[in-house]
Amino acid sequence: MAVVIVLPRKPRFLFSHSLKSNKHCLIYQSKPSCHFIKEKMVSSSRSSDKIPAEKVSDYDRESEVKSFDDTKLGVKGLVDAGLTKIPWMFIEERQTTGMITWGSTESPESVPVIDFKDMDKESVPAVRTEIIKKVGEACEKWGFFQVVNHGIPESVLNGIIDGIRIFHEQDAETKKEWYSRDPQKKVKFNSNFDLYQSRMANWRDTLGCTMAPNPPNPEQLPAVCRDIVMEYSEQVVKLGLTLFQLLSEALGLHPNHLKDMGCAESILILGHYYPPCPEPQLTLGTSSHTDPDFFTILLQDQIGGLQVLHEDQWVDVPPIPGALVINMGDLLQLEDIVMEYSEQVVKLGLTLFELLSEALGLHPNHLKDMECAESILFLGHYYPPCPEPELTLGSSSHADPDFFTILLQDQMGGLQVLH
Fold it and tell me: Pick from 282, 324, 332: which is nearest to 145 by CA?
């Protein structure tokens, strides 16, 4: 599970909490194959200034990125230095062609808002049933929904926003002590986790805290936000487990199914901070992306700027006081399609066992009654491009140690059989 907090352009935060797992759990599939999310920069202007393409050719991004990273001050350090023009590394590449557009398309629809009030009252079981239905529909149609009356006190929500803001706005020398790109560190501050890999940096700084499965010691958390990070984490874990139950039931499974699969074992907290940008029309707070987790619990401040992609249109997600945005991650999207495919293959498998039995002159259910159809193994092979394909094989010659294999190929080809 991921937890994200968003802080303002003035500055702006986004705080997200993400549930992950070391296991490759499979979860929910909604109609869009990917649920994209982005953070536009909030500005009173809508400048259409373009960057001359000829200037891009002599640009040394590597040097600029390293110089920026070496300051250990992040984007806020640029703002504090009185920057009036943003560095090239932050400029959205489509600005070189004038292709970039801001704002969302007018849409009659909006991200569903689901009220969890009275969900656990035994006296009104119909409420929980209706909530499960709404969660399933929101996942299928949107991949996003907002929740209200979720059980986390508004004082805690406001407290974590303030705590993340205080961290990012504290003395620069103190904050530098937390700056790191070491993947082994449980608590670290930096700007853009993919700074050295992405084509464009986002106008954003982040405090990241890995809170499970092996949480940091309290003294390993920044003193200025230590207590509220720990309290918020505890509250979000409870909500995360509730969401896993609702998702399990929406899939027609036992309430503890996803939890028992180990889907709730890992928790990452990200506290994003978006300082004021002198040229907001040229960059983004967060580029369009999907989350590589089961789901993200996202707390916005009241500035706005969050958008989601729905039916090829960017739709604004206006902040609602006390609400949390739930974003289905990449791992959750797999569950439904894998389950549906498995169900279909099981039906085909039983038909094949009947045909094989009859081909052997036996009763149609003979092989099935011998328990030949009891075990199913699903394998999803991936063959990346190979620089020297003439020297290796994707799969060596072999026989399958089972009754039979049902194999689905893509359209690339390459499968051979010995005959």
Answer: 324
Contact 89, 62 (CB under 8 A): no
Confidence grade of residue 17 (pLDDT, cut at 50, 70, 90):
very low
d(CA 26, CA 43): 39
> pLDDT tens digits for 270-309?
999 999 999 999 999 999 888 888 899 999 998 888 999 8
- Whether 203 and 285 have beta carbons less than 8 Å apart is answered as yes
Q: Cα separation of 59 and 362, whole Å?
A: 74
* Residue 207, CA distances (Å) to 91, 143, 167, 221, 290 in order: 23, 26, 8, 10, 20
8 Å CB contact between 185 and 72: no
Q: Which amino acid is at 333?
A: Q
Sequence-distant (6+) residues with CB within 8 A of 197 are none
Contacts with 52 (C-beta within 8 Å, 6 or more apart), sequence order: 96
Tokens standing for residue 26: 């499979």
| Residue 364 amino acid letter | P
CA pair distance 206, 286, nearest whole angstrom: 11
pLDDT at residue number 103:
52
What is d(CA 201, CA 157) in angstroms, rounded to the nearest whole number?
Answer: 28
| Average pLDDT value for residue range 89-115 | 69
DSSP-H helix ranges across 113-253:
125-141, 154-169, 172-176, 226-250
Mean pLDDT is lowest, of 5-19, 276-290, 299-313, 380-394, for: 5-19
Catalogue the E-assigned strands of 26-81.
Answer: 37-40
Q: Which two tokens stand for residue 78?
A: 């640029």
What average pLDDT does this structure show over 402-415?
Answer: 89
Report residue 219: phi and psi, to 5°.
-70, -10
Residue found by looking up tokens 């074992």 in the block:
265
- The model's pLDDT over 199-211, given as tens digits with 9 standing for 90+, comes to 899 999 999 999 9
Beta sheet of 313-316, edge-to-edge order: 284-289, 37-40, 306-310, 313-316
What lies within 8 Å, CB to CB, of 75 at 6+ separation is 90, 191, 203, 204, 205, 274, 275
Q: What does the alpha-carbon distance between residue 359 and residue 34 come to, in Å, rounded to a whole number?
A: 44
